[in-house]
Write a structure and sequence with these properties.
It is a single chain. By secondary structure, the chain is an alpha+beta fold. The chain has two domains: about 220 residues, BirA Bifunctional Protein, domain 2; about 100 residues, Ferrodoxin-fold anticodon-binding domain (Alpha-Beta Plaits, 2-Layer Sandwich), CATH 3.30.70. Helices cover about 30% and strands about 25% of the residues. It is globular, with a radius of gyration of 24 Å. Keywords: Aminoacyl-tRNA synthetase, ATP-binding, Ligase, Mitochondrion, Nucleotide-binding, Protein biosynthesis, Transit peptide.
């Protein structure tokens, strides 16, 4: 069968090239999108992840992600104009391969921040990775002289496996900048910056974020006016997407690259659901973008999958990748603002197999990286992996050996899987785990 021929080929590639807990042992470089990259001790990107590059679901006309993307773009095009033209420019085909400087350093993310961990990101090597957020492009676009822009694309994060999590998802990030004369129209006596802030020596200024209401460089008037605009614009977007009656609330948050920061939640199916994060851009980022950038800016980021799943009642995030006509035709040639409710094509049954194994002596239940295991399972099992759960941890009272048990749920989105098929894939995963980690299957 083609399915298992492909999986065997992937399995062979994985076992010959990758050790999931450390660096690749038998390869010195990998090729991604025509570029060669040197491997090192940080390399953990997998063949499966590389295969998703260039799919660009957010640009595929009949995909629900593309519909939501276009509705968001239309909102900003219609809400913000400059001399009769849209004030926001849109960048939706930026390369997902970025440097650690772009993804972390330019955004003031500390070197010890957990978001930099190998367990969270897909690293090509120490200096390069698959972007973990679209904000990775913020500084380069600011440096190019842009003030108002949307960044849209696929992002990559190592995560658990279930119906709402997938290692590839899609984000819209935005920045809106304003100068004094734009922010304080008709009020020339008001200022963006405090008198203590020396614009000529902005790099030397130590910008404090101790005040929960503003950054130390900003005046309270500037910070509060930007906050009001930001929240008003995003509430407006939310009502365009979900209707005027949607209940919303703001929650204080923390992001390294904005201050103050907030998350917006909507009341959805009897629960509060977070739909975006936002805040006032840290002034250091704007200063680093250029000496003449005496502006204040807000930024926000939202996930297209979360919005699409809520708007169209899509139960499984994997469906975004489906090419099945029963799924695709539900979003074909529809009006962008049409009220669509996804209708299941068919409900195929799950198959669940458990996997228990003893860890080698150098690993414990606390040091074993579950995200490494999830990547391996996904690479071998492909898209028939619906969920992986850590079911049990055990330490033998006498031998002190550590054991883990994972429950793996298999389900095909387009046909019924037989238990025999699932058992074959499960054995391939067991073999891959043994070879990668030197575990002993129980």
């Amino acid at each position: 069968m083609k399915l298992f021929t492909r999986q065997n080929r992937i399995l062979t590639t994985i076992l010959s090239k990758y050790n999931f807990s450390t660096a690749p042992k038998s390869v010195s470089s990998i090729q991604i999108k025509g570029q060669n990259f040197i491997c090192d001790d940080y390399t953990n990107v997998t063949p499966k992840m590389i295969s998703y590059l260039g799919r660009n679901l957010h640009l595929q006309k009949n995909n629900p992600l593309s519909i939501v993307r276009q509705r968001i773009v239309n909102y900003f095009y219609s809400s913000f104009t400059k001399r009769g033209h849209p004030a926001f420019s849109v960048y939706d085909n930026l390369s997902p391969i970025v440097t650690t400087k772009q993804n972390f350093d330019d955004l003031l993310i500390p070197t010890d921040h957990p978001s930099r961990a190998k367990s969270d990101c897909y690293y090509i090597n120490r200096g390069t990775l698959l972007r973990a957020h679209m904000t990775a492009h913020q500084s380069e676009l600011l440096r190019s002289g842009l003030d108002n822009f949307l960044m849209i694309g696929d992002v990559y994060r190592r995560d658990e496996i279930d119906s709402t999590h997938f290692p590839v998802f899609h984000q819209v990030d935005a920045v809106r900048s304003q100068r004094k004369e734009e922010l304080f129209i008709g009020k020339p006596d008001l200022e963006i910056f405090e008198p203590s802030y020396d614009q000529e020596n902005a790099h030397a200024y130590v910008n404090s974020i101790d005040d929960p209401m503003k950054q130390s460089c900003h005046t309270l008037e500037a910070a509060k006016l930007m906050e009001g605009q930001l929240k008003s614009h995003l509430i407006g977007l939310t009502k365009v997407l979900f209707g005027d009656d949607i209940k919303c609330r703001w929650v204080d948050a923390y992001f390294p690259f904005t201050h103050p920061s907030w998350e917006l939640e909507i009341y959805y199916e009897n629960n509060w659901l977070e739909v975006l994060g936002c805040g006032i851009v840290r002034n250091e980022i704007l200063v680093n973008a250029g000496p003449s950038r005496n502006t204040i800016a807000y930024a926000f980021g939202l996930g297209l999958e979360r919005l699409a799943m809520a708007l169209y009642k899509i139960p499984d995030i994997r469906l975004m990748w489906s090419t099945d006509s029963g799924f695709v035709t539900q979003f074909e040639n529809v009006d962008l603002n049409e009220d669509i409710t996804y209708k299941p094509v068919s409900s195929y049954p799950q198959c669940t197999n458990d996997m228990s194994f003893w860890l080698p002596s150098h690993l414990t239940i606390d040091t074993f990286m579950s995200n490494d295991f999830y990547d391996l399972v996904r690479d071998v099992g492909g898209d028939i992996i619906e969920q992986v759960k850590l079911k049990d941890k055990f330490v033998h009272p006498k031998s002190k050996k550590h054991s883990l048990c994972y429950s793996i749920v298999y389900r095909h989105l387009e046909r019924t899987l037989t238990q025999a098929e699932v058992n074959q894939v499960h054995k391939e995963i067991e073999k891959a785990v043994v070879d990668a980690y030197n575990v002993v299957i129980r």
